[in-house]
TrEMBL record:
This is Citrate synthase. One of its GO terms (molecular function) is transmembrane transporter activity. It is found in: Membrane. Residues 66-517 form the Major facilitator superfamily (MFS) profile domain. The chain crosses the membrane at residues 65-86, 106-124, 131-149, 190-209, 221-240, 301-326, 346-367, 402-420, 432-456, 492-513. It is a multi-pass membrane protein. InterPro entries: MFS, MFS_dom, MFS_trans_sf, Sugar_transporter_CS. GO terms for cellular component: plasma membrane. Keywords: Membrane, Transmembrane, Transmembrane helix, Transport. Residues 1-10 have a biased composition (Polar residues). GO terms for biological process: export across plasma membrane; xenobiotic transport. Residues 1-44 are annotated as: Disordered. Residues 11-21 have a biased composition (Basic and acidic residues).
Amino acid sequence: MTTTQQQRNQDALKEEFKISSDPDAAPVVPSGSHEKTEQNVVSTIEQPTDDNEVYSVFTPTQKKLIVLTASLAGFFSPLSGSIYYPSLNTIAEDLGITATKVNLTVTTYMIVQGLAPMLTAGFSDGAGRRPAYIACFVIYLAANLGLALQNNYAALLVLRCLQSGGSSGTIALANGVVGDIVTSAERGSYVAFASVSSILGPTLSPILGGLLSQYWNWHGIFWFLLAFGGVFFIPLFLFFPETCRNVVGDGSIPAPKLNWNITDNIRHANREKAELRVDEKKQEELRKNYRLTFPNPLSTLVVLTDLESALILIASGLTLACFYAVSTGASTAFRSVYGFDDMQVALMFIPFGVGGIVSAFTTGKAVDWNYRRHAKINGFPFVKNKQQDMTEFPLEKARLEVALPLFYLGALTVLGYGWVMDKHVSLAGPIILLFVMGYALTAAFQILNIIMLDVYPGRPAVASAANNIVRCELGAATSAAIVPMAKAMGNGWAYTLLAFILLAYSPALLLTMKSGVKWRRAKKQKQEEKDARMAKDLS
Protein backbone atom coordinates (compact mmCIF):
# COMPACT_ATOMS: atom_id res chain seq x y z
CA MET A 1 0.00 0.00 0.00
CA THR A 2 1.40 3.43 -0.98
CA THR A 3 1.87 6.34 1.40
CA THR A 4 -0.94 8.22 -0.35
CA GLN A 5 -3.32 5.28 0.06
CA GLN A 6 -2.40 4.96 3.73
CA GLN A 7 -3.07 8.66 4.24
CA ARG A 8 -6.45 8.40 2.50
CA ASN A 9 -7.42 5.42 4.63
CA GLN A 10 -6.46 7.32 7.79
CA ASP A 11 -8.44 10.34 6.64
CA ALA A 12 -11.46 8.19 5.83
CA LEU A 13 -11.28 6.57 9.26
CA LYS A 14 -11.11 9.96 10.97
CA GLU A 15 -14.01 11.18 8.88
CA GLU A 16 -15.97 8.10 9.90
CA PHE A 17 -15.60 8.92 13.59
CA LYS A 18 -16.31 12.58 12.89
CA ILE A 19 -19.53 12.01 10.97
CA SER A 20 -20.77 9.21 13.18
CA SER A 21 -20.70 11.63 16.08
CA ASP A 22 -23.42 13.65 14.38
CA PRO A 23 -26.72 12.99 16.17
CA ASP A 24 -28.54 12.71 12.83
CA ALA A 25 -26.10 10.27 11.30
CA ALA A 26 -27.03 6.65 10.79
CA PRO A 27 -25.04 4.11 12.82
CA VAL A 28 -21.71 3.18 11.29
CA VAL A 29 -21.11 -0.50 10.78
CA PRO A 30 -17.39 -1.34 10.63
CA SER A 31 -16.18 -3.43 7.72
CA GLY A 32 -16.52 -7.14 8.37
CA SER A 33 -18.89 -6.79 11.32
CA HIS A 34 -22.22 -7.09 9.48
CA GLU A 35 -24.57 -9.66 10.90
CA LYS A 36 -26.08 -12.12 8.42
CA THR A 37 -29.51 -13.68 8.34
CA GLU A 38 -30.87 -16.60 6.31
CA GLN A 39 -31.69 -14.30 3.39
CA ASN A 40 -29.55 -11.77 1.57
CA VAL A 41 -29.05 -8.92 4.01
CA VAL A 42 -28.89 -5.26 2.99
CA SER A 43 -25.84 -3.86 4.77
CA THR A 44 -26.13 -0.19 5.66
CA ILE A 45 -22.63 1.26 5.55
CA GLU A 46 -22.35 4.94 6.40
CA GLN A 47 -18.66 5.19 5.49
CA PRO A 48 -16.38 3.44 3.00
CA THR A 49 -14.26 0.41 3.70
CA ASP A 50 -10.47 0.42 3.56
CA ASP A 51 -10.16 0.67 -0.21
CA ASN A 52 -12.84 3.29 -0.81
CA GLU A 53 -13.11 7.02 -0.28
CA VAL A 54 -15.90 8.85 1.49
CA TYR A 55 -18.39 10.32 -1.02
CA SER A 56 -19.00 13.56 0.90
CA VAL A 57 -17.47 14.99 4.07
CA PHE A 58 -20.65 16.94 4.85
CA THR A 59 -22.61 15.49 7.76
CA PRO A 60 -26.26 14.41 7.31
CA THR A 61 -27.42 17.61 9.03
CA GLN A 62 -25.25 19.75 6.77
CA LYS A 63 -26.53 17.90 3.71
CA LYS A 64 -30.12 18.59 4.71
CA LEU A 65 -29.42 22.30 5.17
CA ILE A 66 -27.55 22.51 1.85
CA VAL A 67 -30.33 20.74 -0.05
CA LEU A 68 -32.99 22.86 1.68
CA THR A 69 -31.21 26.05 0.61
CA ALA A 70 -30.78 24.79 -2.95
CA SER A 71 -34.44 23.81 -3.06
CA LEU A 72 -35.56 27.24 -1.87
CA ALA A 73 -33.32 28.89 -4.47
CA GLY A 74 -34.98 26.74 -7.13
CA PHE A 75 -38.39 27.93 -5.95
CA PHE A 76 -37.92 31.38 -7.53
CA SER A 77 -38.24 30.19 -11.13
CA PRO A 78 -41.67 28.53 -10.89
CA LEU A 79 -42.75 31.15 -8.33
CA SER A 80 -42.04 33.97 -10.77
CA GLY A 81 -43.44 32.03 -13.70
CA SER A 82 -46.96 31.63 -12.39
CA ILE A 83 -47.40 34.20 -9.62
CA TYR A 84 -49.42 36.43 -11.90
CA TYR A 85 -51.70 33.76 -13.39
CA PRO A 86 -54.70 35.16 -11.46
CA SER A 87 -53.83 38.66 -12.76
CA LEU A 88 -53.62 37.81 -16.47
CA ASN A 89 -57.03 39.29 -17.25
CA THR A 90 -56.30 42.41 -15.19
CA ILE A 91 -52.93 42.93 -16.92
CA ALA A 92 -54.59 42.55 -20.34
CA GLU A 93 -57.16 45.21 -19.43
CA ASP A 94 -54.57 47.65 -18.00
CA LEU A 95 -52.22 47.34 -20.99
CA GLY A 96 -55.01 47.22 -23.57
CA ILE A 97 -54.01 43.85 -25.03
CA THR A 98 -55.78 40.56 -25.74
CA ALA A 99 -55.76 37.49 -23.49
CA THR A 100 -53.74 35.64 -26.15
CA LYS A 101 -51.01 38.31 -26.02
CA VAL A 102 -50.75 38.29 -22.25
CA ASN A 103 -50.61 34.47 -22.29
CA LEU A 104 -47.62 34.85 -24.61
CA THR A 105 -45.65 36.26 -21.67
CA VAL A 106 -46.20 32.91 -19.95
CA THR A 107 -45.13 30.98 -23.04
CA THR A 108 -41.94 33.00 -23.66
CA TYR A 109 -41.05 32.77 -19.97
CA MET A 110 -41.21 28.98 -20.18
CA ILE A 111 -39.21 28.86 -23.42
CA VAL A 112 -36.36 30.78 -21.78
CA GLN A 113 -36.86 28.71 -18.62
CA GLY A 114 -36.01 25.65 -20.67
CA LEU A 115 -33.01 27.12 -22.51
CA ALA A 116 -31.19 29.13 -19.81
CA PRO A 117 -30.12 26.11 -17.69
CA MET A 118 -28.13 24.87 -20.70
CA LEU A 119 -25.73 27.71 -19.94
CA THR A 120 -25.79 27.66 -16.15
CA ALA A 121 -25.37 23.87 -15.92
CA GLY A 122 -22.20 23.81 -18.01
CA PHE A 123 -20.86 26.93 -16.30
CA SER A 124 -21.46 25.51 -12.81
CA ASP A 125 -19.79 22.19 -13.67
CA GLY A 126 -16.59 24.08 -14.48
CA ALA A 127 -16.65 27.14 -12.22
CA GLY A 128 -18.72 25.77 -9.34
CA ARG A 129 -22.24 26.18 -8.01
CA ARG A 130 -21.66 29.40 -6.04
CA PRO A 131 -20.60 31.64 -8.98
CA ALA A 132 -23.56 30.31 -10.97
CA TYR A 133 -26.00 31.08 -8.14
CA ILE A 134 -24.60 34.59 -7.76
CA ALA A 135 -24.91 35.33 -11.49
CA CYS A 136 -28.47 33.97 -11.59
CA PHE A 137 -29.69 36.09 -8.68
CA VAL A 138 -28.06 39.32 -9.89
CA ILE A 139 -29.85 38.98 -13.25
CA TYR A 140 -33.10 37.98 -11.55
CA LEU A 141 -33.15 40.92 -9.13
CA ALA A 142 -32.36 43.43 -11.90
CA ALA A 143 -35.20 42.06 -14.05
CA ASN A 144 -37.70 42.31 -11.18
CA LEU A 145 -36.79 45.95 -10.61
CA GLY A 146 -37.46 46.69 -14.28
CA LEU A 147 -40.76 44.78 -14.24
CA ALA A 148 -41.96 46.68 -11.19
CA LEU A 149 -41.37 50.00 -12.99
CA GLN A 150 -42.58 49.24 -16.56
CA ASN A 151 -46.01 49.99 -18.03
CA ASN A 152 -46.06 48.62 -21.58
CA TYR A 153 -46.38 45.24 -23.23
CA ALA A 154 -43.01 45.17 -25.02
CA ALA A 155 -41.12 45.87 -21.79
CA LEU A 156 -43.19 43.26 -19.95
CA LEU A 157 -42.39 40.63 -22.59
CA VAL A 158 -38.63 41.33 -22.73
CA LEU A 159 -38.12 41.70 -18.98
CA ARG A 160 -40.10 38.52 -18.29
CA CYS A 161 -37.63 36.68 -20.53
CA LEU A 162 -34.72 38.22 -18.59
CA GLN A 163 -36.40 37.33 -15.30
CA SER A 164 -36.79 33.76 -16.50
CA GLY A 165 -33.16 33.57 -17.62
CA GLY A 166 -31.96 34.66 -14.19
CA SER A 167 -34.18 32.40 -12.11
CA SER A 168 -34.47 29.22 -14.16
CA GLY A 169 -30.85 28.11 -13.80
CA THR A 170 -31.40 27.57 -10.09
CA ILE A 171 -33.52 24.46 -10.73
CA ALA A 172 -30.70 22.67 -12.55
CA LEU A 173 -28.28 23.86 -9.86
CA ALA A 174 -30.46 22.41 -7.09
CA ASN A 175 -30.33 18.93 -8.57
CA GLY A 176 -26.64 19.41 -9.31
CA VAL A 177 -26.04 20.10 -5.63
CA VAL A 178 -27.90 16.90 -4.67
CA GLY A 179 -25.76 14.91 -7.09
CA ASP A 180 -22.63 16.48 -5.58
CA ILE A 181 -23.25 15.31 -2.03
CA VAL A 182 -25.80 12.45 -2.10
CA THR A 183 -25.38 8.88 -3.41
CA SER A 184 -27.95 6.81 -5.32
CA ALA A 185 -28.77 4.81 -2.18
CA GLU A 186 -30.15 7.86 -0.33
CA ARG A 187 -31.10 10.01 -3.32
CA GLY A 188 -34.85 9.45 -3.26
CA SER A 189 -35.66 11.59 -0.24
CA TYR A 190 -33.14 14.29 -1.10
CA VAL A 191 -34.08 14.71 -4.77
CA ALA A 192 -37.79 14.68 -4.00
CA PHE A 193 -37.13 17.42 -1.46
CA ALA A 194 -34.99 19.44 -3.89
CA SER A 195 -37.30 19.16 -6.88
CA VAL A 196 -40.61 19.73 -5.12
CA SER A 197 -40.02 23.50 -5.29
CA SER A 198 -40.30 23.35 -9.07
CA ILE A 199 -43.74 21.79 -8.65
CA LEU A 200 -45.07 23.81 -5.74
CA GLY A 201 -44.21 27.10 -7.45
CA PRO A 202 -46.90 26.80 -10.13
CA THR A 203 -49.50 25.79 -7.53
CA LEU A 204 -48.78 28.02 -4.54
CA SER A 205 -47.60 31.19 -6.27
CA PRO A 206 -50.98 31.96 -7.90
CA ILE A 207 -52.48 32.12 -4.40
CA LEU A 208 -49.91 34.71 -3.42
CA GLY A 209 -50.32 36.47 -6.76
CA GLY A 210 -54.06 36.65 -6.29
CA LEU A 211 -53.65 38.27 -2.87
CA LEU A 212 -51.15 40.83 -4.18
CA SER A 213 -53.28 41.64 -7.22
CA GLN A 214 -56.50 41.90 -5.22
CA TYR A 215 -55.18 44.13 -2.43
CA TRP A 216 -52.32 45.99 -4.18
CA ASN A 217 -51.92 45.82 -7.98
CA TRP A 218 -50.10 43.61 -10.47
CA HIS A 219 -46.96 45.79 -10.22
CA GLY A 220 -46.85 44.83 -6.54
CA ILE A 221 -46.16 41.25 -7.61
CA PHE A 222 -42.76 42.25 -8.97
CA TRP A 223 -41.94 44.50 -6.01
CA PHE A 224 -42.62 41.49 -3.80
CA LEU A 225 -40.37 39.24 -5.90
CA LEU A 226 -37.59 41.83 -5.77
CA ALA A 227 -37.79 42.07 -1.97
CA PHE A 228 -38.16 38.32 -1.42
CA GLY A 229 -35.30 37.54 -3.79
CA GLY A 230 -33.02 40.09 -2.14
CA VAL A 231 -33.73 38.80 1.37
CA PHE A 232 -32.97 35.23 0.28
CA PHE A 233 -29.86 36.11 -1.73
CA ILE A 234 -27.98 37.71 1.19
CA PRO A 235 -27.65 34.54 3.36
CA LEU A 236 -27.11 32.44 0.22
CA PHE A 237 -24.17 34.65 -0.75
CA LEU A 238 -22.71 34.64 2.76
CA PHE A 239 -23.14 31.03 3.89
CA PHE A 240 -23.86 28.60 1.03
CA PRO A 241 -20.82 26.29 0.56
CA GLU A 242 -19.31 25.20 -2.73
CA THR A 243 -20.29 21.59 -3.46
CA CYS A 244 -19.27 20.98 -7.09
CA ARG A 245 -17.11 17.85 -7.18
CA ASN A 246 -15.03 19.29 -10.03
CA VAL A 247 -14.03 22.14 -7.69
CA VAL A 248 -13.95 20.76 -4.12
CA GLY A 249 -14.06 16.99 -4.62
CA ASP A 250 -15.87 15.37 -1.70
CA GLY A 251 -15.87 18.73 0.10
CA SER A 252 -12.50 18.25 1.78
CA ILE A 253 -10.61 20.32 -0.83
CA PRO A 254 -10.61 24.08 -0.09
CA ALA A 255 -12.45 26.01 -2.81
CA PRO A 256 -10.80 28.79 -4.85
CA LYS A 257 -11.20 32.24 -3.29
CA LEU A 258 -13.99 33.15 -5.73
CA ASN A 259 -16.04 30.21 -4.45
CA TRP A 260 -15.48 30.70 -0.70
CA ASN A 261 -18.15 31.67 1.78
CA ILE A 262 -17.57 33.16 5.22
CA THR A 263 -17.75 29.79 7.00
CA ASP A 264 -15.13 28.02 4.86
CA ASN A 265 -12.22 29.31 6.94
CA ILE A 266 -13.79 27.89 10.10
CA ARG A 267 -14.70 24.55 8.50
CA HIS A 268 -11.27 23.90 7.03
CA ALA A 269 -9.55 25.11 10.21
CA ASN A 270 -11.56 22.53 12.18
CA ARG A 271 -10.49 19.82 9.74
CA GLU A 272 -6.85 20.80 10.21
CA LYS A 273 -7.23 20.64 14.00
CA ALA A 274 -8.63 17.13 13.60
CA GLU A 275 -5.52 16.34 11.51
CA LEU A 276 -7.65 15.72 8.43
CA ARG A 277 -5.11 16.73 5.82
CA VAL A 278 -5.96 18.00 2.35
CA ASP A 279 -5.06 15.68 -0.53
CA GLU A 280 -2.63 18.07 -2.23
CA LYS A 281 -2.40 15.99 -5.39
CA LYS A 282 -6.18 16.02 -5.76
CA GLN A 283 -6.29 19.76 -5.01
CA GLU A 284 -3.69 20.48 -7.70
CA GLU A 285 -5.64 18.39 -10.21
CA LEU A 286 -8.90 20.23 -9.47
CA ARG A 287 -7.25 23.66 -9.66
CA LYS A 288 -5.79 22.77 -13.04
CA ASN A 289 -9.28 22.03 -14.39
CA TYR A 290 -10.98 24.99 -12.67
CA ARG A 291 -12.21 27.51 -15.23
CA LEU A 292 -14.51 30.49 -15.59
CA THR A 293 -15.50 30.14 -19.23
CA PHE A 294 -18.62 30.57 -21.34
CA PRO A 295 -20.10 27.06 -21.47
CA ASN A 296 -21.05 25.10 -24.56
CA PRO A 297 -24.85 24.68 -24.40
CA LEU A 298 -24.68 21.81 -26.87
CA SER A 299 -23.25 19.55 -24.15
CA THR A 300 -26.73 19.50 -22.62
CA LEU A 301 -28.33 18.51 -25.91
CA VAL A 302 -26.05 15.45 -26.07
CA VAL A 303 -28.11 14.00 -23.20
CA LEU A 304 -31.14 14.01 -25.49
CA THR A 305 -29.36 11.73 -27.99
CA ASP A 306 -29.21 8.89 -25.45
CA LEU A 307 -32.22 6.57 -25.85
CA GLU A 308 -32.90 5.93 -22.16
CA SER A 309 -32.49 9.59 -21.25
CA ALA A 310 -34.76 10.70 -24.09
CA LEU A 311 -37.53 8.31 -23.03
CA ILE A 312 -37.37 9.47 -19.40
CA LEU A 313 -37.17 13.15 -20.36
CA ILE A 314 -40.22 12.97 -22.62
CA ALA A 315 -42.21 11.24 -19.86
CA SER A 316 -41.14 13.92 -17.40
CA GLY A 317 -42.01 16.65 -19.89
CA LEU A 318 -45.46 15.25 -20.60
CA THR A 319 -46.18 15.03 -16.87
CA LEU A 320 -45.30 18.68 -16.41
CA ALA A 321 -47.11 19.66 -19.61
CA CYS A 322 -50.37 18.42 -18.10
CA PHE A 323 -49.51 20.19 -14.87
CA TYR A 324 -48.90 23.53 -16.61
CA ALA A 325 -51.96 23.14 -18.83
CA VAL A 326 -54.20 22.88 -15.76
CA SER A 327 -52.40 25.77 -14.03
CA THR A 328 -52.56 28.10 -17.05
CA GLY A 329 -56.11 27.23 -18.03
CA ALA A 330 -57.51 27.52 -14.50
CA SER A 331 -57.90 31.30 -14.55
CA THR A 332 -60.08 31.30 -17.69
CA ALA A 333 -61.90 28.07 -16.79
CA PHE A 334 -62.97 29.03 -13.27
CA ARG A 335 -63.99 32.53 -14.40
CA SER A 336 -66.21 31.22 -17.19
CA VAL A 337 -67.65 28.19 -15.36
CA TYR A 338 -68.07 29.56 -11.81
CA GLY A 339 -67.75 33.35 -12.30
CA PHE A 340 -64.74 33.62 -9.96
CA ASP A 341 -62.67 36.78 -9.43
CA ASP A 342 -58.83 36.87 -9.11
CA MET A 343 -58.85 35.94 -5.42
CA GLN A 344 -61.30 33.08 -5.83
CA VAL A 345 -59.30 31.69 -8.76
CA ALA A 346 -56.15 31.85 -6.61
CA LEU A 347 -57.82 29.86 -3.84
CA MET A 348 -58.53 27.02 -6.26
CA PHE A 349 -54.78 26.38 -6.46
CA ILE A 350 -54.68 25.40 -2.77
CA PRO A 351 -55.76 21.75 -3.25
CA PHE A 352 -53.32 21.48 -6.15
CA GLY A 353 -50.50 22.72 -3.93
CA VAL A 354 -51.49 20.63 -0.91
CA GLY A 355 -51.36 17.51 -3.07
CA GLY A 356 -47.83 18.45 -4.12
CA ILE A 357 -46.77 19.05 -0.52
CA VAL A 358 -48.09 15.65 0.56
CA SER A 359 -46.13 14.01 -2.26
CA ALA A 360 -42.93 15.69 -1.08
CA PHE A 361 -43.22 13.96 2.28
CA THR A 362 -44.10 10.53 0.91
CA THR A 363 -42.49 10.04 -2.50
CA GLY A 364 -38.86 10.01 -1.42
CA LYS A 365 -39.51 7.51 1.35
CA ALA A 366 -41.36 5.20 -1.03
CA VAL A 367 -38.57 5.40 -3.61
CA ASP A 368 -35.83 4.71 -1.05
CA TRP A 369 -37.86 1.83 0.42
CA ASN A 370 -38.22 0.20 -2.99
CA TYR A 371 -34.50 0.72 -3.66
CA ARG A 372 -33.66 -1.12 -0.43
CA ARG A 373 -36.12 -3.87 -1.34
CA HIS A 374 -34.44 -4.48 -4.69
CA ALA A 375 -31.03 -4.27 -3.06
CA LYS A 376 -32.06 -7.07 -0.70
CA ILE A 377 -33.50 -9.19 -3.51
CA ASN A 378 -30.30 -8.83 -5.57
CA GLY A 379 -27.87 -9.16 -2.66
CA PHE A 380 -26.65 -5.63 -3.35
CA PRO A 381 -25.09 -3.74 -0.38
CA PHE A 382 -26.99 -0.60 0.65
CA VAL A 383 -24.27 2.06 0.98
CA LYS A 384 -25.22 5.56 2.10
CA ASN A 385 -22.03 7.58 1.75
CA LYS A 386 -20.17 5.92 -1.11
CA GLN A 387 -21.31 6.02 -4.72
CA GLN A 388 -21.30 2.46 -6.01
CA ASP A 389 -21.10 1.05 -9.53
CA MET A 390 -24.80 0.77 -10.38
CA THR A 391 -24.35 -0.81 -13.82
CA GLU A 392 -25.92 -4.15 -12.87
CA PHE A 393 -28.46 -2.81 -10.38
CA PRO A 394 -32.07 -2.56 -11.68
CA LEU A 395 -32.38 1.17 -10.94
CA GLU A 396 -35.09 1.77 -13.51
CA LYS A 397 -37.24 -1.03 -12.13
CA ALA A 398 -36.77 0.13 -8.54
CA ARG A 399 -37.82 3.68 -9.45
CA LEU A 400 -40.53 3.06 -12.06
CA GLU A 401 -42.41 0.48 -9.99
CA VAL A 402 -43.33 3.46 -7.82
CA ALA A 403 -43.68 6.02 -10.62
CA LEU A 404 -45.89 4.16 -13.11
CA PRO A 405 -49.02 3.83 -10.92
CA LEU A 406 -48.74 7.55 -10.17
CA PHE A 407 -48.27 8.29 -13.88
CA TYR A 408 -51.53 6.46 -14.66
CA LEU A 409 -53.36 8.10 -11.76
CA GLY A 410 -52.23 11.53 -12.95
CA ALA A 411 -53.60 10.86 -16.45
CA LEU A 412 -56.96 9.71 -15.08
CA THR A 413 -57.33 12.80 -12.88
CA VAL A 414 -56.55 15.10 -15.83
CA LEU A 415 -59.30 13.32 -17.76
CA GLY A 416 -61.75 13.64 -14.87
CA TYR A 417 -60.91 17.31 -14.28
CA GLY A 418 -61.70 18.20 -17.88
CA TRP A 419 -65.15 16.64 -17.74
CA VAL A 420 -66.20 18.00 -14.34
CA MET A 421 -65.31 21.48 -15.62
CA ASP A 422 -67.12 20.79 -18.89
CA LYS A 423 -70.31 19.65 -17.14
CA HIS A 424 -70.25 22.48 -14.54
CA VAL A 425 -70.57 20.06 -11.62
CA SER A 426 -70.41 21.01 -7.94
CA LEU A 427 -67.20 22.79 -6.91
CA ALA A 428 -66.29 19.78 -4.75
CA GLY A 429 -65.53 17.82 -7.93
CA PRO A 430 -62.63 19.94 -9.24
CA ILE A 431 -61.30 20.51 -5.70
CA ILE A 432 -60.92 16.76 -5.04
CA LEU A 433 -59.49 16.07 -8.48
CA LEU A 434 -57.00 18.95 -8.21
CA PHE A 435 -55.68 17.54 -4.93
CA VAL A 436 -55.22 14.01 -6.30
CA MET A 437 -53.79 15.38 -9.55
CA GLY A 438 -51.32 17.58 -7.67
CA TYR A 439 -50.15 14.56 -5.68
CA ALA A 440 -49.86 12.13 -8.60
CA LEU A 441 -48.21 14.42 -11.15
CA THR A 442 -45.79 15.87 -8.60
CA ALA A 443 -44.73 12.44 -7.35
CA ALA A 444 -44.31 10.99 -10.85
CA PHE A 445 -42.19 13.95 -11.93
CA GLN A 446 -39.97 13.69 -8.86
CA ILE A 447 -39.22 10.01 -9.48
CA LEU A 448 -38.45 10.58 -13.16
CA ASN A 449 -36.08 13.33 -12.06
CA ILE A 450 -34.33 10.88 -9.72
CA ILE A 451 -33.82 8.43 -12.59
CA MET A 452 -32.12 11.13 -14.66
CA LEU A 453 -29.61 11.75 -11.87
CA ASP A 454 -29.07 7.99 -11.58
CA VAL A 455 -28.32 7.71 -15.29
CA TYR A 456 -25.96 10.72 -15.26
CA PRO A 457 -24.26 10.59 -11.82
CA GLY A 458 -21.15 12.47 -12.96
CA ARG A 459 -22.93 15.54 -14.36
CA PRO A 460 -26.12 16.08 -12.37
CA ALA A 461 -26.55 19.74 -13.37
CA VAL A 462 -26.35 18.90 -17.08
CA ALA A 463 -28.87 16.06 -16.64
CA SER A 464 -31.21 18.42 -14.80
CA ALA A 465 -30.76 21.09 -17.49
CA ALA A 466 -31.74 18.58 -20.18
CA ASN A 467 -34.79 17.71 -18.08
CA ASN A 468 -35.60 21.40 -17.87
CA ILE A 469 -35.42 21.87 -21.65
CA VAL A 470 -37.94 19.16 -22.42
CA ARG A 471 -40.38 19.91 -19.62
CA CYS A 472 -40.38 23.67 -20.20
CA GLU A 473 -40.76 23.50 -23.97
CA LEU A 474 -43.60 20.97 -23.70
CA GLY A 475 -45.06 23.04 -20.88
CA ALA A 476 -44.82 26.19 -22.99
CA ALA A 477 -46.65 24.46 -25.83
CA THR A 478 -49.53 23.28 -23.63
CA SER A 479 -49.71 26.64 -21.81
CA ALA A 480 -50.13 28.43 -25.13
CA ALA A 481 -52.57 25.87 -26.55
CA ILE A 482 -54.87 25.00 -23.64
CA VAL A 483 -57.15 28.08 -23.76
CA PRO A 484 -57.71 27.94 -27.55
CA MET A 485 -58.18 24.15 -27.28
CA ALA A 486 -60.78 24.54 -24.53
CA LYS A 487 -62.64 27.16 -26.57
CA ALA A 488 -62.62 25.02 -29.71
CA MET A 489 -63.19 21.56 -28.18
CA GLY A 490 -64.60 22.27 -24.75
CA ASN A 491 -62.79 21.54 -21.48
CA GLY A 492 -63.80 17.87 -21.53
CA TRP A 493 -62.23 16.94 -24.86
CA ALA A 494 -59.24 19.28 -24.44
CA TYR A 495 -58.11 17.57 -21.24
CA THR A 496 -59.11 14.15 -22.59
CA LEU A 497 -56.57 14.67 -25.37
CA LEU A 498 -53.84 15.50 -22.82
CA ALA A 499 -54.72 12.44 -20.71
CA PHE A 500 -54.69 10.20 -23.79
CA ILE A 501 -51.20 11.41 -24.78
CA LEU A 502 -49.96 10.68 -21.26
CA LEU A 503 -51.44 7.17 -21.22
CA ALA A 504 -50.28 6.39 -24.75
CA TYR A 505 -46.69 7.15 -23.76
CA SER A 506 -46.60 4.76 -20.79
CA PRO A 507 -45.28 1.76 -22.84
CA ALA A 508 -42.03 3.72 -23.26
CA LEU A 509 -41.60 3.62 -19.48
CA LEU A 510 -42.34 -0.11 -19.41
CA LEU A 511 -39.62 -0.58 -22.04
CA THR A 512 -37.21 1.49 -19.94
CA MET A 513 -37.98 -0.60 -16.87
CA LYS A 514 -37.27 -3.79 -18.83
CA SER A 515 -34.15 -2.71 -20.76
CA GLY A 516 -32.54 -0.05 -18.55
CA VAL A 517 -29.78 -2.27 -17.15
CA LYS A 518 -28.90 -3.53 -20.64
CA TRP A 519 -28.70 0.02 -22.01
CA ARG A 520 -26.50 1.27 -19.16
CA ARG A 521 -24.20 -1.75 -19.49
CA ALA A 522 -23.76 -1.05 -23.22
CA LYS A 523 -23.02 2.63 -22.55
CA LYS A 524 -20.41 1.74 -19.95
CA GLN A 525 -18.72 -0.74 -22.28
CA LYS A 526 -18.67 1.83 -25.07
CA GLN A 527 -17.14 4.45 -22.75
CA GLU A 528 -14.49 2.01 -21.52
CA GLU A 529 -13.52 1.16 -25.11
CA LYS A 530 -13.28 4.86 -25.92
CA ASP A 531 -11.09 5.51 -22.86
CA ALA A 532 -8.86 2.56 -23.79
CA ARG A 533 -8.36 3.92 -27.30
CA MET A 534 -7.50 7.36 -25.94
CA ALA A 535 -5.02 5.87 -23.47
CA LYS A 536 -3.45 3.85 -26.27
CA ASP A 537 -3.12 6.93 -28.48
CA LEU A 538 -1.43 8.87 -25.67
CA SER A 539 1.03 6.08 -24.86
